Amino acid sequence: MLESSNLEHANRFGATSETILETRNLSKSFGAVQAVRNVNWSVKRGEVCALLGDNGAGKSTLIKLITGAILPSSGEIWVRGSRARITGPSDALNLGIAPVYQDLALIEGRNVIQNMFLGSELTHGPLNLFLDHARMALETTRVLGEIRSRIPSARAVVRKLSGGQRQAVAIARTLIRGGQIIIMDEPTAALGVEQTREVLQLIENLRTQGRTVVLITHNMSQVFQVADQVSVMFRGEMIGTKRVKDTNQEEVISMIVGAKREAMGAA
Amino acid sequence: MREETSAPSVLRPPSTPGSPRVLDFLLENGLYVSTLILIAVFSVSIPVFFTLENAVNILSSAALKGIIAAGFTITLIAGLIDTSILGMAALSTVLTGVLFQQLGWPLWTTMLGVAAAALVMASLNDALVVRAKINSFVATTATSGVFLGVCLALTNGQTITITRPELQTVLLARPLGLPVAIWLMFAVYGAGYVLLNHTRLGSHLYATGANHNAARVNGVPVNRVTHIAFALCALAAALGTVLATARAGSSLLFGTQFLTFDLTEIFTAVLLGGASLFGGSGKIERNLVAVLFLTILANGLQLLQTGTGIWLVLKGAAFVAAIILDVVRQRRQ
Lengths: 267, 333
Description:
heterodimer; A: alpha/beta; Rossmann fold; six-stranded mixed beta sheet; four-stranded antiparallel beta sheet; 26% strand; globular; disordered N terminus; B: two-stranded antiparallel ribbon; 71% helix
């Protein structure tokens, strides 16, 4: 059942001109443990794709493969219709695949501008020796405006920002670096109601800007709030992908439950 | 969810509601206020304190420790505690004596030799911290002992008196009326200020010290940054020591006892200046003020002839205050 589901999925999504990111028979093993098994999965340009699954389902491993944090055991990753050679995070970033880390990887005591350009600072002057503060400030303000963030000032120290505002900084940083496919791992896990709403709005704004978002989440209602496509993983396999407008929570839950029953039956 | 939000509000000023402003003011400006009060009190109570000659004297004394403290601040910002400045300073003063006085090297090659030795010492610290992944405080305390041991082996514990005049004629010259050491101190702090605030490396030093892992995943070459921080600290320690050696006219090591400064003075200066033992913060210009504060205190007490005991008590108290300030700052954040 699982294999036919994958095939069906590949036929439905694998070869459209809109596909921006695709995996073909992607697998990853850690010793005897196969964390990701023959995953065929694709994401369309300008859409929000939710990735659902229990802990240990393989979501994070799949994302690490796509962002170059780890290398696959076998299989292929295709970006914009071409086979991608991703040997590290910088390769992924060059292809426009940018992760927002779960801990956001922000420097608390530095301001928004300094965080936005950390590791990719703009310079000018002789031998490009000096930081171009003015251009970095302008770019920061521009990108924060683009995603309609609610950060009070580009010069605000990150320590003083709310959880939602921090997410905005981390997201804006991926855009500064040319991110087109933004990968977000449980962005609302540690947030309150208002801040969660703010982050979902940011995701919505990214879609409006034509960016693609891959959203790892446990939260079914969020999937139906912001996603265009929902894919479900179970024990390293992609057990199905649905268009959100063509499905409902019950059907998605039944996919997960069905996979569990099947696994229990096999055992 | 899909409705438009209001216009972006990135231009509004930052708000910091609920912060006790008095404590914030003291944490931010207490050092400046204390320094001004100290100057005022000594000016009133000591007739010779507020004179040009004494000001130059204070700045000269501050220069030697200030240059070393500047390098120490950079490592602290990068999240490293380099206690080997003591051992590096000791080896630098001994090498200056050996190369310049005993082997008769010209002044500039002596200085290059001392700088090269400083870089070798920095590389040893770097290897222990980056490659062996040993805590910097532990690693540099160990290497400091090694450097002092090398000093003892080179000198048999004897102080080397420098009789060749070039060291002092060059390094104790007074261009535009101020000793070279003072010019060099301002140059070091100026360069440090530009480095930390206006270069990519400065940004990387702060980030590496504040959150090593976040810096790494954002593409900051954290190992290279660590290496450079150790190297700058070692070079500053060497420069400060060569100047101090010129001023004293002899190497500054008596047995394994280094004579010009002790570690607590440097720690006090950099912590009073706002750098943190926890890394990632600090402003080098404030560090200069802290060095001046301590030097003014020492100078005033000396002019008042209060004796060494009072100075040691106040120096210890300043050290404790500096650590408390650091902890309070961290808790406030």
